[in-house]
């Protein structure tokens, strides 16, 4: 009886911890979508040349959503997942598609 009183809560805590853990590795399709969103922001920045307030906001969003986030993820993901080459390939493919447009 005493063992089950200690074991059950311990198991519940362990299961809850595992269930709450996020996926450490990035999905390649998610990376491709993020790259496309960043490219769309770059196009909007280029179109907003005569609108300094809008351009400043777009540049801030680009810095926050594309540069800062990617830097953090790229630095920490390789140690966990090892799928850096797949991500680079997806990035290059997105750049090629963008050039073709």
Number of helices: 4
Mean pLDDT: 72
Question: In sequence order, what are the helices and strands, one letter per element?
Answer: HHHH
- Rg estimate, integer Å: 21 Å
Summarize the amount of helix as a percent range: over 70%
Beta-strand proportion: under 5%
The chain-level structural class is mainly alpha
How many beta-strand runs?
Answer: 0
Low-confidence stretches: none
Largest sheet: none
N/C terminus separation: 69 Å
**What is the number of domains?**
1
Instruction: Give the overall silhouette.
Output: flat
Task: Explain what this protein looks like in three dimensions.
The chain has four helices and no strands. With 101 residues, the protein is mostly helical. It has one domain (25-100). Helix 2 (28-47) runs antiparallel to helix 3 and helix 2 runs parallel beside helix 4. It is flat, with a radius of gyration of 21 Å. The N and C termini lie far apart (69 Å). This is Lipoprotein.
């Amino acid at each position: 009886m005493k063992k089950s009183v200690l074991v059950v809560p311990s198991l519940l805590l362990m299961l809850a911890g595992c269930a709450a853990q996020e996926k450490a590795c990035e999905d390649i399709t998610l990376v491709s979508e993020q790259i496309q969103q960043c490219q769309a922001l770059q196009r909007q920045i280029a179109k907003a040349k005569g609108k300094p307030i809008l351009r400043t906001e777009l540049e801030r969003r680009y810095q926050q959503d594309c540069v800062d986030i990617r830097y953090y993820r790229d630095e920490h993901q390789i140690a966990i997942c090892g799928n850096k080459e797949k991500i680079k390939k997806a990035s290059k493919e997105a750049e090629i598609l963008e050039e073709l447009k």
